[in-house]
Each structure stands twice: as C-alpha cells, then as structure tokens.
Amino acid sequence: MAIKMYNPTTPARRGMTSQDTSEITTRKPLKSLIKSKKQNAGRNNTGRITVRHRGGGVKRHYRLVNHNLPAGTKATIEEIEYDPNRSARIARIKDQNSLYHYVLADTSMSKGKVIHSGVDAPIEASNRMPLSLIPIGTQIYAIEIHPGKGAQMVRSAGTKAQLMAKEGDYAQVRMPSGEVRRFRLEATATIGVVGNVQHQNIKIGSAGRNRRKGIRPGVRGVVMNAADHPHGGGDGGRHGTGKPPQTPWGQLTLGYRTRRRKDVSKLIVKSRHDAKRKK
Questions:
Q1: In a domain, 259, yes or no
Q2: Are the C-beta atoms of 116 and 125 separated by less than 8 Å?
Q3: In this structure, are residues 159 and 176 in contact, taking their beta carbons and an 8 Å threshold?
Q4: Quick one: pLDDT at residue 275?
Q5: What's the pLDDT score for residue 174?
Q6: Of 6, 39, 120, 131, whose CB is crowded by the most CB atoms within 10 A?
Q7: 129 vs 122: CA distance, rounded Å
Q8: From the CA atom positions of the chain, what is the Rg in Å?
Q9: Residue 231's domain spans which residues?
Q10: Residue 224: CATH number of its domain
Q11: Looking at beta carbons, which pairs linking 209-218 to residues 24 or more positions away fall under 8 Å?
Q12: What pTM was computed for the model?
C-alpha cells in the first residue's frame, strides 16, 4: 500500500499525506452490521470528563466486527471496507450459512478468497485456529487472552506477533512491542499480518484534520497558571527544575509505574522495557 501525497497548495498541504484507498472495494457498509455511535466527548456515565482533549469530530457508525469467529466457519471474502473506528481495514465475509460477518483484514485478503476457522482449518494466511496447531515461528494477529472470549491483542494496522515456543499448557508469543508473553494453547489467533501497513507513516498536516477526528487541542502545563497545573506559574522563566514531571493532578509521569494488575505479571516472560534497553 502506498501513501498519497498532496501538492503544496497551502502550508498545511505541504507536509500532509493520507492513506491509499485502492484496496478498498466498496464505500457502502452492510446496514445490518452497523449501529449508531453516540458522541460522549470523553465523558463517562455521570457526565465527568475522563479522557481530556476529546470532542467534536464527524459522525460515524460503528461496525460490528466479529472477533470470535465460530469454529468450523468457512467463509468467502466479499468486500474489503474502510472502518472509521479503527486503523485497520475490515473484510465483509459470508459463511456457509449465508450469514455476514466483519473481520479484521490482513495483507493477504482479497475478494473471493476463502478463509477457515477452527481445528480443521489449513495452516494458511487469514485462517484462524488454536495456538496449539500453529507452527512455531509463524506470524499471527488477533490473539485471544482468555480462550473463547474473542481476539483482544494485536489488532492495529500493520501489527503482527510471532509464535516463539510452546511449553506445557502455554505458548510464548513475541508481541509487537518486543514483550514475550504467555498465552494458553487453547487460545485462538489468525495467521498473517494486519493490513493497512503504512498507517503509521501518515502525516496529519493540519489542526483541522485532527478536529474532524474528534481530537481537541492539548495545552502544555508550563504555560498554565499555578492553580491549574503543577508545572504552571512563574514570571516567564523556566521554573520547577529539579522536580519530576507530573500530571495535572500531581501524579508522577516519567519512570513511575502505574500498572495495578498484578495477576498478568506471571504471564510476561520478557518485558518490553528489557527489549528497549538492549537497542
């Protein structure tokens, strides 16, 4: 997939790039697989802002992507579609019972291709099966954390993981971050690489483009008043040196561990931070 360049007709257009949509085969989603999406502007059920710098943006419908394709499914890819709610493309498939589903599209998917799911699926790209049946060294995506719950990891555009080893009831998988993590052998994954690989190389170029995505401007703490941020205040000079960076609520931000889930630490064989230190 190539990246679409723009002529420098304006300062914003000079560095702007966008994704090539040549692989998308239809512009109209299936009506039975979409639902309306309420705009909440980063607010929770009580109306409080829990995610800052969100609001506005164009209206979009949510695509009901099936992350837990039933075992024994044999489906034909009918369309490759754009999904405004995720970075990856989605594929519209029709199974042997004439039911339609949306699944994540990988780099090898195209119209007319037949994909399988389950223990009887052949070891080919785009097929989904338990980790116990996938050969070591294979690139995979859409991995289940809890068997039967559906894919939760490695779903973004261009991402892939690699099956490294199998020991006892667990498989060791190297994640896109470099972390090596254990998964149950019964957990399912799809063979291949998530499509839209060039997504990470797209340059936004203008502030208005971010606003249409629903992203509002962020303000640095050092330009705020002292009442609004721990970094704020002062007479224009650089104040607060020697103090660690903090959030607006006083929590440390750099080098400070905020992870609370202790139950998954036993599943991490090699931390992603160890991989970064060796580079």
A1: yes
A2: no
A3: yes
A4: 54
A5: 96
A6: 131
A7: 9
A8: 22
A9: 219-279
A10: 4.10.950.10
A11: 209/16, 211/56, 211/57, 212/56, 212/57, 212/58, 213/57, 214/39, 214/54, 214/55, 214/56, 214/57, 214/58, 215/53, 215/54, 215/57, 216/53, 216/54, 216/55, 216/56, 217/53, 218/52, 218/53
A12: 0.86
**How many whole angstroms from its chain centre is CA 248?**
27
Burial (Cβ within 10 Å: 0-12, 13-18, ≥19) of residue 77: buried
SS3 letters across 76-138: EEEEEECCCCCCCCEEEEEECCCCEEEEECECCCCCCCEEEECCCCCCCCCCEEEHHHCCCCC
At 184, the amino acid letter reads R
Each residue's pLDDT tens digit, 169-189: 999 999 999 999 999 999 999
Task: Please check whether residues 150 and 238 belong to one and the same domain.
Answer: no
User: What whole-number distance in Å separates Cα of residue 77 and Cα of residue 101?
Assistant: 10
Shared domain for 193 and 230, answered yes or no, is: no
Where does residue 68 rank: exposed (0-12), middle (13-18), buried (19+ CB within 10 A)? middle
DSSP string of 137-179, one letter each residue: T-EEESEESSTTS-EEES-STT--EEEEEEETTEEEEE-TTS-
What CATH number does the domain containing 158 carry? 2.40.50.140
122: tokens are 């052949």
- Are both 27 and 75 inside the same structural domain? yes
223 and 196 in a common domain:
no
Domain assignment present for 109 = yes
The answer to whether residue 213 is domain-embedded is no
Residue segments in the chain with a per-residue pLDDT below the cut of 70: 1, 238-241, 261-263, 275-279
Decide: 125 and 118 in contact? Cβ < 8 Å. no
Spatial separation of the C-alpha atoms in residues 30 and 19, rounded to whole Å: 22
Residue 64 and residue 182 share a domain: yes
* 70 and 181 belong to one structural domain: yes
State whether 228 and 171 are in the same domain.
Answer: no
**247 and 167 fall within a common domain:** no
What confidence score (pLDDT) does residue 153 get? Answer: 95
